[in-house]
Give the backbone structure.
Amino acid sequence: SLFHHRTTFFLPLIIDFGMLDFAFEAEYRRFGLKKNGYVGFQEFYQLLQSIHHIHGVDVLLEYADIHGDLLPINNDENFQKAFASANPVLRIIVTIKGLVLTGLRTGGSGSIHSKNKSSLMIGPPQNFRQISSIIDVDILPESHRRVRLHKYGSNKPLGFYIRDGVSIRVTPQGVEKVPGVFISRLVKSGLAESTGLLAVNDEILEVNGIDVAGKSLDQVTDMMVANSHNLIVTVKPANQRNNVVPRGSKNSMGHSGSVGSGGSIGSALSHDSQSPASHSNPITASSSIAEGDSYEEDDDGDVILENDCLPTYRSHPGTNSNSSTLNRDSPHQGQHSSIPQSVSMPNSLAAALSHSSTMMSHHNGGSAHSVGSSQESMKEDGNVITL
Amino acid sequence: MKRFRRHVHESQRDRLKQELFQFTKTVEHGFPHQPSALGYSASLQLMAIGTRSGAIKLYGAPGVEFMGLHDENAAVTQVFFMPHQVELVTLLDDNSLHMWTLRGHKGLSELLEIGRFMLTGPPGAPPSVTRVTAVLAHSSGELLLLGTEGGHVFIVEVPGFRELEERNISLDQVTSCVPDDYIGRRNLEHVEALQESPMNSNQVAIGYGRGLIVIWDLEQHLAIRHILPTQQLESMWWTEDGSSILSSHSDGSYCCWTLGAEGEYEEDEKSDIPYGHFPCKAIMKIVKLPTAGGPPFLLFSGGMPRASYGDRHCITVIHSKTQVAFDFTSRIIDFFVIRHGPHLTGEPSALVVLVEEELVVIDLQTEGWPVIQAPYLVPLHSSAITCSHHVSAIPLKLWERIIAAGLLQNTHYSKKPWPITGGQNLALDPPQRDLLLTGHEDGTVRFWDASGVCLNPLFKLSTASVFHADADPNDNMSQSAEGEWPPFRKVGCFDPYSDDPRLGIQKIHLCKYSGYLTVAGTAGQILMLELNDEASEQTVEAKIVDLLQGQEGFRWKGHTQLDVREEPVLFPPGFQPFTVVQCQPPAVVTALTLHSEWKLVAFGTSHGFGVYDYLQKKSVLVKCTLNPSDQLAMEGPLSRVKSIKKSLRQSFRRIRRSRVSLRKHQISSTAKIQEANARLEAELAEMELAPVQRKIEARSSDDSFTGLIRTLYFADTFLSDSSHNSPSLWAGTNGGCVFAYILFLPPLERRADDAVTAQPAKEIQLMHRAPVVGIVVLDGQGAPLPEPLEMAHDLARSPDMHGSHHLLVISEEQFKVFTLPKVSTKMKLKVTAVDGSRVRRVGVAWFGSSRTEGYGESGLVFLTNQGDVHVLSLPHVKIQVRHPCIRREDVSGIASCVFTKQGHGFYLISPSEFERFSLSTRYLVEPRCLVEAPIHSVASNQHKPMPKVTSSTHRSSQDTEDAESAARHVMEHALLNDEKVLQEIQKSLEGDQGSFPQNNVKSAVA
């Protein structure tokens, strides 16, 4: 469900994509690596080719970062980044280039294979992190905008400030002044600014589906911080000229193209054809939060370390043989969760991984043993990275 | 159908909620903040205290107390009981007068305001004409005499506040009977004092600011004599036999004027400046009381030599050859003397003094005039409260031992019973014995009996003797040299100036079954104490625990560690320390818990946590939680702030000791205040220019103090597998992290020899990273695990160890239930994400049903930063009730809140007062008392209606009517007045406006 909203990417292009669904053979390898052993991307690339015996085949490297996003490895910089994020396991997905890239449609011309052209190389959508989206266009009044900010998709700070202010409402009794909360400042190159969807003096109406009317500035602040990993704010933009017109009305694409303040990093809307039901999802989710008994997917990301992977305080180890080594408590993970791990992952990550067609499957049997050995190696040398 | 059933279920639940939960604020404990007026009724034996915030509090026998609050937010400047009645009158800062009564209602008395009144002057008159400066409640119970700033005395009939204009005593009438040469120079100034003759109720003495005293006959409506002192008048006292009047003056002198035969001018018979030679300060109030056959008692406040002791707050008592200047800890508000005998006109028995920070009662009948320990109004803040801890249902044995130890500390108090005995306490005996422990800035822990309405001091523990403290040996202010003049004696216990801030108590945990106590302080010290009925001399063993565990790049810039005395120290009976753990770095201890069955104590600071085996006196576990990027925790509190505080403290001491005249002080301090105000205004103006804004940013792991330990919890539960339970320790950090350790305890017979070990078992990092403020393990039936030793004493049902246990982690933002031993989320309740409030204080409580005996539920009580208290059901973490409790701006009140196991709570409403509230429908601790009108009043006022306070319930409606009619009366009167005022306005428009005020008073008299 990650891409089922209209999405904003970090690219000045409209990207149209379908579901990726490939069936091809997969191979699974796991090996250790000295952390300071490889410094360059090319060196590593060649190592992988030799390990997989695929010399001369163009492959695309991707890794799953701590948030579960698949990110590309194609230069020294992001290779270093990937290495740094190994904690201690780094998962790398290797796919043959031709199989994945369906290409990019620019200006209606045919697909261009980026490898051969010197023009700007743009990867598939999953190479990018979704950082924000406009949601619920169908159910909101035209003057309002509901924006979702994905904090975990970016290292950027959320980067905005709010203040108290006076809002003017039109009521049956006439125009009324009521206290409201407004965006007071956007931090330069922060997440909020880079989306182009929030602006100074926009009035905050709701935070994750909860009306902020009657709440103090500090309360609203705490609500936003508490939801910061998946912040959904409904605003009444100060500038009402760039409103999104719900689908079905004329020239929707044309209008959406102009969303985002001109000059800033262009944000684009990709309209997919989802049923309206999915759009109302955040609201039902939040109302069940209020009930207090929800089992929600979006934030159940508590990291739980069981005893076998904790450094023992007692001087004599070996008392932990009977403890379980696998944590597979997430009910949504099902058989896809073949990732040998002792760190339980957020469900959203598991879901994202299982959506991604490149994940290996049918690997349940026999993993326990290799896990045990990898644990051993981890204990011996903390710098060893297992793949 | 299903929906319908659910509906029925919900309504049943709603009914049950009503039987279980109910929110009430029941009583205020401690000493009223900023008292401003004192009154006493000898016939009711009740004392009334008014405060600057407009509260009025009545106290009688222990347990008898009433509270009222004026609607106006103005200070109460004077309180008077109507003689021989249950009414009292208050005068407020805004010049309004209020009448209160103790009304009977359902067999109990309640304090009720029944009338208010504002003296209205003639139109165009300056406000000083009606500004009330002195009040006399006439012994007839029907009149109030109001002396004003303009020098007039207005006479008002009560109840109803009807002005008797024809009886008013105008300034003109008074001046006409005084020699012209006295009048000629200046005006008489305001009415300073009004006194009724003890022998003839028609005679009142009117004392003017400039000094003139006139004795006025109310019946004949003329001045019958006058006295001409040469000094500014401060107070006046008419001796009981009516033969003489004492006047006290601004130069520190007092005079005794014998009233000779009628018509004669009085002679200044005896004049004295008690602390004379050098200029003295004013004597603010003087009282002279006779004794049977002996010399009289003379008591006065003030009069100290201006230059040397002008800053002391003294009351001097002189009896025969004995003279003592009682030196109080803060400014004297007022005092009165209680007298013995059936009509309370006998020997003076006790001196009751209200000073700004405490109430002191001195026994005048026992040799040496010792202090009588007060059963209420005890200053909680004698040293500032830094933390509090409540323990419910104390076993009788421990209770008796604590009381016995406490009695040994109170040998210097008088043996006489509490002299204020009015009213009957009808409250039932408390169902159990509850202790409230308060930790203080000076390193003391005070034990209070919190079972009933009166918060009684039981025992005081001082931890300072364990350490070489920073105390200055010359600082001892109580020393008084032999033959010192004036003959000072320090009384009172208010002493907010702590010698060493490191001694401050931060956390307390008492095990009520074993009598073990642990207290932890500001400099990382953790003391283990044991209750001992005998005094003992012992060396306290110190153990240093390094919480950094080799973490590098660290530099502690905070205070140094306390030095533990190496030589044996003599400890009095009571709680005696036997071991001290000192955390290194010596940061403030932020979490503390004790398991007396396992003999382990766990503690945490901003750097990590540890477990200490106090049986073997060995460290069991140390864990560093410090985040390397956390600069703030590394360096400790800013040393600059500390030094400012220290220098402030020292300068306060200097002020107290200095011999500089107060006037100089006043000038410099008012100048300073003005300066500070100007600065504040400038800052405010700046703030208004820049709007308040808040940054929205996700919490990251490199926020400061993420490693600070917020909570520690011992539990016997399933940590490794679901078939074997084992002892465990749980620690929650400020950064949303929970650490769990399995503890391996040797079998009991080898407990003293084999080592206790710990092994890490789990680590949970909450995604939302909010501070973890509480951890509770719920048993197989969803009930919280019992306290250590609770089961061993057969006081709790044993926990269900068959079903699966659950872990409840309470962060500031969410309540989360995890399964055990495999940790996965089962349920959660978000607080902050939904309404923006954050959990500040939390406690587990038992709620009994008010209707079904024996039915009850465990619940989780919590207080948010919005000041709301909530009850959550367990184990389903659903909100049951929510009530606003504390103003959200009252941050210190919210931080001070403690919950009891019975669903009660305490929080500080001022530095010196606890408010008690209850969320339970059972065990309400609130005053229930009855005050009956004195018999005397029935006899002497037969024409009056029945006494206002009776025990019968059916009369209450009539009483309400009475009160209403009184109020109506006031209203009508006000209207009547207005009409007159209109006429006067008309008249004044025609006539000369300038001379009007005098005209009006004259016409009123004529």
